Amino acid sequence: MLHQLLLTLLFALASAIPQTTPPTSPAGETLQAWLDAFNSGDRAQMEAYCKKYDPKQTPDRMLSFRGQTGGFELQQVLKSDRLHLEFVVKEHNSDTRAIGSLDVTDAQPPQVVQLGLRALPPGASLSDVTFNIDAATRIKVIDGAILQLNEFYVFPETAQKMEDALRAHQKHGDYDSITNGNTFAAKLTDDLEAVSHDKHLRVNYSPVKMPDRPADAKPSPEEVAQYHKQMEEANCGFDKVEHLAGNVGYVKFDFFADPDVCGPTAVAAMNFVANVDALIFDLRENGGGDPKMVAFISSYLFDQPTHLNDLYTRKDNSTQQFWTLPYVPGKRLAGVPVYVLTSKETFSGGEEFCYNLKNLKRATLVGETTGGGAHPVSGHRLDDHFMIGVPFARAINPISKTNWEGTGVEPDIKVRAPDALSTAQKLASEKSSADKPKPN
Questions:
Q1: What is the pLDDT of residues 154-179, one digit of tens each?
Q2: What 3 state SS string does 222-260 have?
Q3: For the chain, domain boundaries
Q4: How many whole angstroms separate alpha carbon 256 and alpha carbon 236?
Q5: SS3 of 371, please?
Q6: CATH number for the domain whose boundaries are 232-373+408-435
Q7: Which residue from 123, 131, 125 is spatially nearest to 222, judged by alpha carbons?
Q8: Cα–Cα separations (whole angstroms), residue 359 to 71, 122, 137, 355, 410
Q9: Strand ranges (DSSP E) for 283-423?
Q10: Selection from 270, 288, 420 nearest residue 351 by Cα
Q11: In whole angstroms, what is the distance from residue 115 CA to residue 94 CA?
Q12: Residues in a beta bridge with 103
């Protein structure tokens, strides 16, 4: 009780005297560099930051995240060590506050080991926040992660190899000095990915206790309402729908949302481009989503029933097929040339859309090789603060009999992602000119 009272008092004092600038330390230098680059919205500045401080990060990912938040204002530094920071930021676009944790290497310049942000849930206060973990927690999380992997991971032999790797690290004492939850989650993720090379597989940490609920519990009415609100604020992932010169349609969307919620938005987007001579889908910042929405949007591009993809689930040895829908609201564009813009940030469901259309020879892919994640994932709670996302199924294309896991989807026309749109527009113009009847 005394410890909790002291913790509450410390947070109250931190609130009374907010620290709005990072401390002078390697971690503080890195946080300031990240804030400067992130808030600038400038690709070149983000590229310079990634190159200097965080080579695992990409400017495309930063730009996408900045588009959602508008940038961040540093409000408080909760804990400051030379190579570690815990802090509070506020979104520019809303009243949302997030709790952050940063670890860097002792190098010049410092290199990011992990940088994590987690939105502070409505009604939560800073007194609810903790990053501290102990030995018992580390053991519980490792045991729980191994249990979930062995039960659900799509390749059981790989699950066993991951268990062996975690046990070896554990025996060697590689986790013994880690007392920060975000740091531990990042380390486990790295160790699991080193074995599986599966980019969907992640361990996540919440500095605020997650609500207690059964694993199979349905979302509450409040959670459903919150999801609807989030989709409305994000416009269901649809960023731009435009009519370009030469009667070319342009549709940019950054994730595939649940069509039960976002179907009307997708219909509006597709009906806006219903009469174009060519269509460009921009998936350069698309991180994936619901395969049902992949099938829904794809249905506008075919006039015959078309087998798009299968998902094989290891747990119950079942296969679910995905076909185009027999009906879509509005006009189909079955004969319209389609171009899909890709980048190395195009991932998961975004890749499925590309892979399906490429194998069906229904689209020309323009840009960069995609990220290489073909395994749908489900979340499993490990304790009050830790969860693991376990890839439980794998895509099987009906034509290639395989998928894009680990390799990504190769574009038909390879160009830098920033040049993909102008390249596709040029291709569409040339196609249109070639298809026009020649004068006698």
A1: 999 999 999 999 999 999 999 999 99
A2: HHHHHHHHHHHHCHHHEEEEEEECCCEEEEEECCECCHH
A3: 14-120, 135-205, 232-373+408-435
A4: 8
A5: coil
A6: 3.90.226.10
A7: 123
A8: 39, 45, 46, 6, 11
A9: 307-313, 318-323, 338-342, 364-367, 377-381, 386-391, 393-396, 413-414
A10: 288
A11: 21
A12: 84, 114
For residue 422, which amino acid is it?
S
SS3 call for 191: helix
Pairwise CA distance, residues 278 & 229, whole Å? 33
* Coil, strand or helix at 411: coil
How far apart CA 351 and CA 370 sit, in angstroms, is 7
- 207 dihedral zone (left: phi>0; alpha: psi -120 to 50; beta): alpha
The pLDDT value given to residue 311: 97
* Of 243, 267, 268, 238, residue with least CA distance to 253: 238
Report CA 94 to chain centroid distance, whole Å.
Answer: 21
CA–CA separation, 87 and 32 (whole Å): 12
> Is CATH 3.10.450.280 correct for 14-120?
yes
Query: Which residue in this structure is represented by tokens 């040049």?
Result: 419
Q: What CA–CA distance (Å, rounded) separates 70 from 67?
A: 6
> Do residues 10 and 3 make contact, with C-beta atoms less than 8 angstroms apart?
no
The yes-or-no answer to whether 14-120 and 232-373+408-435 have a common fold is no
Instruction: Give the model confidence (pLDDT) of 309-367 as tens digits.
Output: 999 999 999 999 999 999 999 999 999 999 999 999 999 999 999 999 999 999 999 99
Place of tokens 């099938």: 295
Q: Which of 280, 273, 327 has the alpha carbon at shortest distance from 299?
A: 327
